[in-house]
Amino acid sequence: MAIWLTESSRVIVQGMTGAEGTKHTRRMLAAGTQIVGGTNPRRAGQYLDHGDTRIPVFATVEEAMAETGAEVSVLFVPAAHAKAAVIEAIDAKIGLAIVITEGLPVHDAAAFWAHATRAGNHTRIIGPNCPGIVSPGRSNAGIIPEGITGPGRVGLVSKSGTLTYQLMYELHDLGFSTCIGIGGDPVIGTTHIDALAAFEDDEETAAIVLIGEIGGEAEEQAATFIRDHVTKPVIGYVAGFTAPPGRTMGHAGAIVSGSSGTAESKRRALEAAGVRMGRTPGETARLTRGVMSAG
Q1: Which tens digits make up the pLDDT trace of 63-74?
Q2: Which one is catalytic: 115, 122, 192, 251?
Q3: Most buried among 132, 153, 173, 218, by the most CB within 10 A?
Q4: Which domains, from first to last, does the chain contain?
Q5: What is the pTM for the complete model shown?
């Protein structure tokens, strides 16, 4: 099983004809993703060739959906135009929009999040500034490397792209149902809680790995949700124990203010909710292996 992305998901790529869009479209195709089209209003009617596969380019998301039945869009659109591209996807009522673009102003992310809410939340947004989502052996939408893990019964949700890849590799012997990089910006579309709820409802996910980092209160909120609503074992890791207070580290959201948002405060909250916490990615992987072997 998998959440949100399966082998039957029909995917389009907004910004498919740009350098990054082209590169990653071909990489996703090679991974088996069912990419059925892309968008660029200036190159509508053209095709992207990949081996024997020709992927059509459409002017708009609405046109691409009408012609292909697409349900998922991956956005490789420059930051200056990303807000408009996400709003276009929302207005077309696509089911899932994965915003890879980094460097978006917080105001832009807040604007398209609010637009999705006003439109009735027909579109789930993952990102911005995220690596995407992969259901190993089924589909890969974003920039997550292919081949570092296989299908299995562990669900993974992470703020950090790099740590997503590392835990996937560390646990490649177990495999994953779905791995989701939600991004670490201050405003994101899909949260730890959203992923936890979906994994809790997925019959084939036996355990959940949650990766957080310093800044904000997302992990503390996730801890409360886990305590009240999650029955499956959760294993956690929070990056940033050595980060100096008051300084942004990596993601725009990774800033500590006083005692709020520190790795230690997040670890304590998650442990109080029953989460088994690793101090390193390697220890987190060992804890996960122990949980899976016990159950």
Answers
A1: 999 999 999 999
A2: 251
A3: 132
A4: 11-126 (3.40.50.720), 148-294 (3.40.50.261)
A5: 0.92
